[in-house]
Design goal:
- It is a single chain.
- The protein has 230 residues and is of the alpha/beta class.
- The protein has a single domain, classed as Rossmann fold.
- It is 34% helix and 15% strand.
- A six-stranded mixed sheet has the order 3-2-4-1-5-6.
- It is globular, with a radius of gyration of 17 Å.
Length: 230
Amino acid sequence: MKLSRIQALLAALVIAVAGCGPRAAEGPATLRIYLARHGQTDWNAERRLQGQTDRMLDETGRRQAAQLAESLRGIRLDAVYSSTLGRSRETADIARGGVPLTSMDGLRERAIGKFEGLRLAGEDTASVSEFRRRSQDPEDSLDGGESSTQFYVRVRQAIEAIRDRHPAGTILVVGHGGTNQMILRTLFDLAPEQAESIRQANDEIYMIEIEAGMPPRLWKRIAAANLSDL
């Protein structure tokens, strides 16, 4: 059975239980991007679509942000980036360990117009079906939101600007579920459906290693909570 491109990438991961990848054989032009998703909000727990509605972390989310800080303890970060939405900024602020934080509009979650706040597990099945159908159209801006094409271009420009600032070093980017899909799509040249198949939990962290002249490499941290991913 053939693996899809993203499945092949994930199958080839070097997975570390206690950390996020190797520390040896680093060249002078290597950039490491630790890519985290913001901690949980009340709307995450309720399975509501948040988009650019500005929800802050709940108690679980703040605990997840503290766990992210612990995961990164001992790693020298050169910079930390978040979106300008509160749930991303708060997670990054808890995890950054005193490293300066830069917030960027380009890292915000996709604006999904009239569907923001829609409960995916609620009773309004017609609206959920409409959202799922319309979100597959790359040019549909969802009645006041932005199209998936516009979203991808925006995030791509943001991560390219970050890479221009950091051709080498180690940085943390705290994004959103959809934003991080678009970051991985950009860095690994994924097809839209491959990127959209990635499901990063609120407490998961990836590490992307970009070295001049080499294809990018991806690691995923495995902790007690996600041992079933092994």
